[in-house]
Design brief:
The protein is α/β, with parallel strands linked by helices and about 240 residues long. Helices cover about 35% and strands about 25% of the residues. The protein is built from 8 helices and 10 strands. Strands 6-7-8-3-9-10 form a 6-stranded mixed β-sheet, sandwiched between helices. The protein has a 4-stranded antiparallel β-sheet with strand order 2-1-4-5, covered by helices on one side. Strand 7, helix 7 and strand 8 form a beta-alpha-beta unit. Helix 3 packs across helix 4, helix 3 packs parallel to helix 6 and helix 4 crosses helix 6. The structure holds adenosine-5'-triphosphate and magnesium ion. Magnesium ion binds next to helix 1.
């Protein structure tokens, strides 16, 4: 754990398109996320939630303002340094999974480990362990994404985000396509990594119950933060839970 905030946004705005037809996705957003916080982000469709996560991940650049991750201002980093930060320190679960269609589930999860120096064989062994934790069975691991259910694809995407043991996980609706039991299992894994290993979690969700896993909930509306609420007590489901279930 460290005193350096995991993420700082200083007066960040993001517009898409040219001046004539600009869409403002984020408008003057300032935010500080301490290391090891579990932050939930809610808000209607189009309010800027995915835009916010993309800016923190360095997948997109702000029109105005500064984005600082782990003490490093993203626009000051070279493309290589930004990619490195993303590969080693940030796990991203995309709203649309973004799995490689020609890789099996296990290969999808093993893939980021190649960039952090693991040999393919060792990477596949490690990938199998994380998939096991996520409840993806042996048969499913050797299938292609198109041969998996939505929920299985979701779990593979989460395994891929966690396999490098990042310090920060950005999750865009990680339980959106899951039944409530599987959704809860995924939330429990994130919570356990948060409470036991100090993982910082920033999770977008439309689900009010899922949001209660956060110690803090932001609400976005029209690209602005309209609510920032810290839970005054620990919800009963926060606390150590078994990873293997
Ligand atoms: N690449 C883009 N080009 C143009 N406009 C965009 C782009 N990406 C997002 N937008 C617009 O920015 C606004 C915010 O989009 P964003 O994807 O951040 O919303 P969201 O809160 O994640 O919504 P949802 O809950 O539907 O996922 C929307 O009006 C959207 O149409
Ligand atoms: Mg979105």
């Amino acid at each position: 754990m460290t005193d350096t905030p995991a993420v700082v946004l200083e007066r960040v705005s993001k517009s898409y398109g040219d001046a004539g037809h600009a869409v403002t996705a984020l408008s003057d957003v300032s935010l500080q996320v301490p290391a090891s916080q579990f932050l939930s982000i809610m808000g209607p469709s189009g309010s800027g939630k995915s835009t916010l996560l993309n800016l923190i991940a360095g997948l997109d650049t702000p029109t105005h303002g500064r984005v600082i991750v782990g003490g490093q201002e993203l626009t000051h980093l070279s493309d290589d340094a930004r990619s490195d930060l993303r590969l080693r320190h940030i796990g991203f679960v995309f709203q649309s999974f973004n799995l490689f269609p020609t890789f099996t589930a296990q290969e999808n999860v093993a893939w980021p480990l190649g960039f952090v120096g693991l040999r393919w064989r060792a990477a596949k062994v490690r990938a199998a362990e994380v998939l096991e934790q996520m409840g993806v069975d042996t048969a499913a691991r050797s299938r292609l994404p198109a041969e998996l259910s939505g929920g299985e694809q979701q779990r593979v995407a989460i395994a891929r985000a966690l396999v490098t043991e990042p310090r920060l996980v950005l999750a865009d609706e990680p339980t959106g396509n899951l039944d409530s039991q599987t959704g809860r299992a995924i939330l429990d894994v994130l919570l356990q990594l948060n409470t036991q290993r100090g993982l910082t979690v920033i999770m977008v969700t439309h689900n009010a119950f899922a949001a209660t896993y956060g110690q803090r909930t932001l609400e976005l509306r029209d690209g602005r933060i309209v609510r920032d609420v810290h839970a005054d007590s620990e919800p009963s489901h926060r606390g150590p839970v078994p990873l293997h279930r």
